[in-house]
Design brief:
Layout (H helix, E strand, L loop, with lengths): L6 H8 L2 E5 L10 E5 H8 L5 E7 L5 H17 L7 E7 L4 H10 L1 E2 L6 E2 L4 E2 L10 H11 L6 E6 L5 E3 L10 H14 L8 H9 L1
Parallel strand pairs: 3-4, 4-7
Antiparallel strand pairs: 1-2, 3-8, 5-6, 8-9
């Protein structure tokens, strides 16, 4: 990373905890696990370059296909060898908790229409009764002008500044998408990401 991640700022925007499904049994409480922001951040800060905020909902038919591409063509190919270069954070637009949990558990389409699996990435919690959670989701939607689903917003990891609003069209390209985002990041924020610095960092790691 060119600069250290501003963990305090990220936590204020994304919240202090995340949740995800471990399998497809969405009706079971044991199917879900949570992590604190601190633990998530400790696993991401060493190699993390981009935070990909995935705005989606069960009621939007394209979301399952986008989830499939996001997992198979991007997430699984970019984050390898224990390194998290680009972390996906799911931000739901579902209005019912059980629908959100169902989406986490069987929201990724595999092959034919009758084969589904769980999302491997973390989600912002959806707790309608928790007053501190709804503003986080609503503020993120307002921050990026989200009016439809699905949307894949790509941000640089240090301060959650926008790199591209159109990540959905890029995710099919795996590491080539990351390379384009690096160039866009440098163009937008040259003071924090000087041209050529990423290549230098990669050489030092080898």
């Amino acid at each position: 990373m060119a600069k250290e991640i501003d963990a305090a700022k990220l936590e204020r925007v994304l919240g202090n905890s995340f949740k995800r499904a471990k399998g497809q049994d969405w009706k079971s409480a044991d199917n879900f696990e949570t992590t604190s922001f601190a633990d998530w951040h400790n696993g991401f800060k060493a190699d993390g370059e981009f935070i990909v905020i995935y705005f989606a909902a069960h009621w939007s038919p394209p979301c399952r296909l986008v989830s499939s591409i996001l997992k198979s063509e991007f997430y699984d190919k970019v984050n390898v060898d224990g390194k998290k270069i680009a972390e996906v954070i799911f931000c739901t637009d579902d209005q019912k908790k059980h629908l959100w949990e169902r989406n986490l558990s069987i929201g990724v389409q595999i092959g034919d229409e009758d084969n589904f699996t769980h999302m491997p990435w973390w989600s912002m919690p959806f707790e309608p009764e928790a007053e501190d959670q709804k503003p986080l989701i609503n503020n993120l939607k307002a921050r990026f002008g989200i009016t439809e689903m699905p949307i894949v917003v790509v941000c640089e990891a240090r301060n959650l500044r926008l790199v591209t609003f159109y990540g959905r069209k890029d995710i099919k390209d795996g590491m080539d998408a990351v390379k384009r985002w690096r160039k866009e990041r440098t163009e937008r924020y040259p003071e924090d990401y000087p041209a050529g610095e990423e290549e230098k960092n990669e050489e030092e790691k080898e």
